[in-house]
Amino acid sequence: MKVREPAVAGSFYPETKEGIEKLIRSILEEEFQYIDTSLAGKNIFGAIVPHAGYVYSGYEAIHVFEILRLSGLVFDTVMIINPNHHGLGPSVAADTNDCWETPLGKVWLDLEIIEFMDIPRAGESHRHEHSGEVMLPFLQLFFPYAFRIVPVSMLNQDPVHSLKLAEKVFLAAR
User: Fold this and answer.
1) What per-residue confidence (pLDDT) applies to 173?
2) CA 62 – CA 54 distance, rounded (Å)
C-alpha cells in the first residue's frame, strides 16, 4: 500500500487531530451566522474552495463544507481538482498512491474512476502540493462516513486542458 503522507500538516493546518478539530470548530462557531444554509437544499454537484492555510482560507472554506454537511448528501467519491503550484509533473495528473493520510486518518483513492478517466498518474504532481491536501481534514470532519477521493493536480489550467478534464469528469459522474 502506497500512502501519501501529509506534506503541510503543521504549517497549513494543525499537525494533530485535536488541533485540527479545535481550529475547525472555532472557525465554524465564528462563521456559522454568515453561512447561507438555504444552499443545503439545492442540487449540489461541485464547489470552488480556497486552499491556503486554514487561518486564511478556513473562514471561507468552512461555508462549503457546512453546506455540504447540512445537505445530507452522501458522496462515494470526492474529486479534488487543484492547482499545481510547484510545476512538477504533467499538465493534468492523478496521484500514484493508494491513499492519502492526514492526522485524522487515511482516505483511499478511487482507483476505478482514475482508470476510467484515463488521466496520467504522477506522484511528483502531488507529493509537496498543499492545495488538494488541505481539503482532506475538512472532508474527514464534515463527512462522517467512508468516501474515496480522486485527487487531480492541474499544472496547465488553460481552456484546452480544463475542457478535456471537464469532459472526463462529466463522463465519470454519470
Assistant:
1) 87
2) 10
SS3 108: strand
Do the strands 99-102 and 105-108 form a parallel or antiparallel pair, or are they unpaired? antiparallel
pLDDT value for 17? 98
pLDDT digits (tens, 9 = 90+) for 12-36: 999 999 999 999 999 999 999 999 9
136 pLDDT higher than 90: yes
Structure-block grid coordinates of residue 31:
462563521
CB neighbours of residue 52 within 10 Å: 14
Q: Which helix (H) or strand (E) holds 3?
A: strand 3-4
For residue 67, what is its C-alpha cell? Answer: 453546506
Structural contact between residues 122 and 93, judged by C-beta atoms closer than 8 angstroms: yes
Burial class (CB in 10 A: 0-12, 13-18, 19+), 5: exposed
The separation between the first and the last C-alpha atoms of the chain, rounded to the nearest angstrom, is: 29
- How many alpha carbons lie under 13 Å from residue 124 in its C-beta half-sphere? 7
Cell numbers placing 37: 444554509
What letter represents residue 15's amino acid?
A: E
**What is the enclosing helix (H) or strand (E) of 148?**
strand 148-154
- CB–CB of 23/54 below 8 Å? yes
Question: Collapsing DSSP states into helix, strand and coil, what is residue 67?
Answer: helix
